[in-house]
Specification:
The chain is low in regular secondary structure. Helix content is 6%, strand content 12%.
């Protein structure tokens, strides 16, 4: 599930937190419900909790979860307006090698913007 949907922290407690926590569909303005994903697939070696974490703070070159790519290097997304969309991953950094045992930690990856992370950020939440 999208980590910015009714998540545990209050954005008011972080003065520098420019992104909104979506508490209801009324909060889905930019992006609107047709542009805000609710659930997606997460790769099996990345699952550690009940949310799909999109890093909104550390720039467009990092991930906090590895998206699933079970459909020919694509992931499926269910949006708030109930439509389903398949997104093809374009950057190899989006899908690092599979961990053979246990959970794989996602390190910060400096470098040019990852277009997949930019796409995920644009469909997670907006600025408050």
């Amino acid at each position: 599930m999208n980590n910015m949907l009714n998540c545990f922290f209050d954005p008011g407690q972080y003065a520098a937190q420019p992104f909104k926590v979506i508490r209801s569909t009324r909060d889905m303005v930019d992006p609107p419900p047709c542009g805000t994903f609710i659930v997606t697939e997460e790769r099996q070696d990345s699952i550690d909790d009940g949310v799909f974490g999109v890093d909104m703070w550390n720039g467009p070159a990092s991930l906090t979860a590895i998206p699933g790519e079970y459909h020919n290097f694509c992931g499926n997304f269910v949006f708030a307006d109930a439509h389903v969309e398949t997104h093809r991953w374009r950057d190899p950094r989006t899908e690092p090698p599979l961990a053979q045992v246990g959970y794989v930690a996602i390190p910060f990856r400096p470098g040019p913007p990852n277009p997949d992370v930019v796409w995920l950020q644009a469909h997670t939440t907006g600025h408050r």
